Amino acid sequence: MTTHSTRMLILGSGPAGLSAAIYGARAGMKPILVQGIQPGGQLMTTTDVENYPGFADVIQGPWLMEQMQKQAEHVGTTLIYDTIVDVDLTGRPFRMTGDGGDVYEGEVLVIATGAQAKWLGIDSEEAMKGKGVSACATCDGFFYRGKKVAVIGGGNTAVEEALYLTNHSDDVTLIHRRDSLRAEKILQERLFAHPNVKVLWNKEVSGFIGGGSPEGLVAIDLKDTVTGDISRLDVEGGFVAIGHHPATELFRGHLELDSDGYIKVETGSTRTSVPGVFACGDVMDKVYRQAVTAAGTGCMAALDAERFLAAAEFAGDAISEAVAAAG
Ligand code: NDP
Fold first, then answer.
1. Model pLDDT, residue 182
2. Among 84, 105, 212, 309, who pairs with 93 as Cys (CB 3.0-4.6 Å)?
């Protein structure tokens, strides 16, 4: 069992955590970044990325994350693989414990553990992911321009994604399992007023149907939740928008979370309810959820962390011995 000590401890290795690391390292905070069970985050399971600024040609998600990792290491970040099972945020240095017993100490902690899209959980969904079935219209909608598409869900995300898709398609269907939406009224009004969107009420997805060569989505099978009737909707893009799980279980009871489980931050900053603990990326953002916004908030977290440490040191708040010894 080893104790790893640093000024800046980061948990999570998606664009948010790695951007925090790049800025933190360049500010001399010698970050230690602990990568969890999905190093690189959601982009590791994304293929074509066309919306990350700086790349004129399409790039691959895993390649982008590899570049960010190398960049973070080149400027002085230590990357460690571990699964954190416990956190202690009661005082500085903050402590996290890995499943093998290693302890990580940081004068500041940046949480960038991300969020996972919820899926319907049917077999054909798994088979058709990346072949027409996606959980992010903002990321993938462009690939379906001029094609018939559908969005599944009834919350703000589903309605926003359906409206977003009207930029690319003049045939968008929202599929919802009940007869009313939970999205905000203003979004509902925009949706109902849009000439290129129709809503199918009381419908559950029973299957995503593939066809063609290379195989792609050709239709979605539906079951009426009231009558039990079966129907088929011909579409080439199906966007599942039924919510996300922010990865915050570790922090429940230690930090303030909102009613959806996201880490609460002060507006316009990455400061959490515990001074010295910062959150960035999808773990605190349920509105934008983009790689570039995650990277942006990662940068903010590093700047917030640096200012916090500078203010604490100016106030004579000594850095702990372990961290000082670690340099
Ligand atoms: P929500 O939890 O609000 O909505 C999820 C939707 O998916 C619900 O309509 C739900 O149906 C449906 N659903 C859930 N599980 C299934 C399933 N297994 N099969 C079919 N349908 C299912 O998630 P959102 O991502 O929309 O929003 C999450 C939070 O983020 C909310 O607080 C929202 O307000 C916020 N948000 C805010 C935005 C903004 O401010 N611009 C943008 C996006 C999100 P049912 O209604 O029947 O439960």
1. 96
2. 105
